Recover the amino acids of this structure.
């Protein structure tokens, strides 16, 4: 690791005796690697500031969500809509390896809000997909979709609010998210109310003493949520995790979790390969591929996540359809086909 570049971090904690948990993520080297690959792409170039900041918030949120549910598979967070930002995608694996990309179809002001980027006419959507590593034949990934507007159809400009709404819908758990990103750091804080245990509560058999206890726990969460919301963007981007937790919750009983042996920190990693690209080319069909070869002399595919170029001359392309080049077991990455 180059001197001066810090490793990305994910920290988990509980509020002792209270039904509240939290996490803080700081993506540094992982986030800078994602932006560097985009900037190094001579065809597309660097993202506008507003797009990179949104994609960074999505990356931080995706790591928090993967850490929250501990899912044995890929968690894919996407936003799409009717603005010049056609699609933004972040994928996080169980080991917290991640990759991200965004596709633009028009010019975007450097300070454009979320609605101008992707939700011009309230057509924007946010999708969270859970794709198990051990998916059985015929089994479909789980996907939840929420709009980029609130219950009154007012456009949401803070992406964290979109995910808070999703968490409440999908998990029925109150959640606070604070997200921020610049060209060096993508960071996030998650605070979530834990479900209250007890068969009596679930059956509606809660006595008056228990009700008072539950009310107190609700007030505890509300107090912690207010403290979390006071975290400013600059603080989240510039302060270390210890300082953030002490500044926000210095009066709260926090229990920190030490990472287990073998647990990995968030890192950039792309899963593209020649085999997966070959499968994608095969799906186009012989006629389409022959047409590209006749026009351009080769088929060229660029992975949108990492910028890796894959080139196929006529002999390579023929090998895909004759079985000389094996197909991958899963789908190809999003790519630009030339």
């Amino acid at each position: 690791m180059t001197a001066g570049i810090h490793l990305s971090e994910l920290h988990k904690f509980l509020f002792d005796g209270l039904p509240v948990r939290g996490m803080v993520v700081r993506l540094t080297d992982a986030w800078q690697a994602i932006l560097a690959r985009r900037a190094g792409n001579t065809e597309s170039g660097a993202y506008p500031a507003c797009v990179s900041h949104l994609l960074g918030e999505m990356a931080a949120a995706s790591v928090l969500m993967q850490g929250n549910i501990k899912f044995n598979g890929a968690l894919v967070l996407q936003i799409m809509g009717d603005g010049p930002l056609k699609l933004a995608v972040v994928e996080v694996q169980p080991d917290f390896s991640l990759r991200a990309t965004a596709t633009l179809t028009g010019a975007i002001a450097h300070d454009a809000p979320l609605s101008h980027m992707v939700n011009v006419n309230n057509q924007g959507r946010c999708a969270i997909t859970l794709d198990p590593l051990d998916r059985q034949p015929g089994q479909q990934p789980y996907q939840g979709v929420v709009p980029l507007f609130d219950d009154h159809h007012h456009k949401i400009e803070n992406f964290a609010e979109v995910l808070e709404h999703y968490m409440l819908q999908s998990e029925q758990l109150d959640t606070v998210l604070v997200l921020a990103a610049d060209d060096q750091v993508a960071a996030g804080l998650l605070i979530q109310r834990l479900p209250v245990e007890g068969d009596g509560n679930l059956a509606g058999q809660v006595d008056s003493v228990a009700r008072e206890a539950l009310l107190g726990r609700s007030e505890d969460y509300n107090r912690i949520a207010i403290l979390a919301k006071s975290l400013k963007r600059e603080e989240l981007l510039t302060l270390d995790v210890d300082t953030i937790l002490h500044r926000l919750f210095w009066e709260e009983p926090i229990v920190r979790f030490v990472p287990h042996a073998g647990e990995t920190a968030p890192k950039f990693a792309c899963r593209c390969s020649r085999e997966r690209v070959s499968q994608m080319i095969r799906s186009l069909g012989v006629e389409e591929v022959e047409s590209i070869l006749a026009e351009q002399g080769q088929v060229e595919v660029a992975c949108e996540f990492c910028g890796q170029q894959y080139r196929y001359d006529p002999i390579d392309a023929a090998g895909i359809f004759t079985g000389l080049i094996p197909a991958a077991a899963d789908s190809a990455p999003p790519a630009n086909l030339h």
Summary: Confidence is low (pLDDT under 50) at residues 198-206, 208-215, 326-333.
